[in-house]
Amino acid sequence: MKVGKVYSHFGRFWDNSFYGNLPYFDGFKLAPEQGVSLEASTTTAKVGPKVDFAAQYFVIDGLTNGAYRGGDTLFDPGSRRRNIAIANVEPVYQISETASVGADVSAQYFQADLADAGKKDVYRLALGANAKYGPVSAFGEYTYQHGQHVMNYPVPATPATTTTDAVPGQTSSHNHYVWTGAEVNVDKFSARYNFSFVSYADVSIKETIHEPGIGYALSKNVSLLTEFVLWQTHYKNPTRTPVYDRSLNFIIYGSF
Fold first, then answer.
1. Confidence grade of residue 239 (pLDDT, cut at 50, 70, 90)
2. What is the CB-side half-sphere exposure of residue 102 using CA atoms within 13 A?
3. Is 130 helix (H, G, I), strand (E, B) or coil?
């Protein structure tokens, strides 16, 4: 049992990237909240079946995550996420010490307390699968969201000018996310490709992030990583260009 500011366990935790993915930029991933987390596993055996569980209740959001500005409730002044409840079940069959197959099912409810729109109920469901065989691993996850949790995203509001009136932002209460990736590790090298997709169905906007990466382990504690990122908008959006970000990123990663 953990009490305090704890990472939420809705769906797969992470994809080993540096830059991130669309669920992350909408506040789903690497999001610590304020509350209680119960986490357990049915066994610690190296081979055979096991099930990991997590049941979490957070009184209020932690005001800390990597969401893109406007992509999460906390970016609206005076708005917070409250009464966050998460259940996560991850069955895994460890075929051998180097091979496994698994799945995960997660459900989340929270209340988006929006300063300009009142309290909104938000529901999320995530279904995922993963596999590993020797140096190769892969995963996939689908998430559906029902409910409004922001005011001005993915289309931000346009302020008034001396010649034009203000235009309110647009949001979507029915969103579909797909997140998948594969990785190969050979000696000190690793090669990875991650892909994420979101459809904001209510405003007919779709976005994708393609993210290949190559890593090299200098030592047990220090690694080098290069990632290329292509973040695109696929439907006409007056606030964004079709290519939102195209970047090549170099990272030195250290741990102790």
1. low
2. 24
3. strand
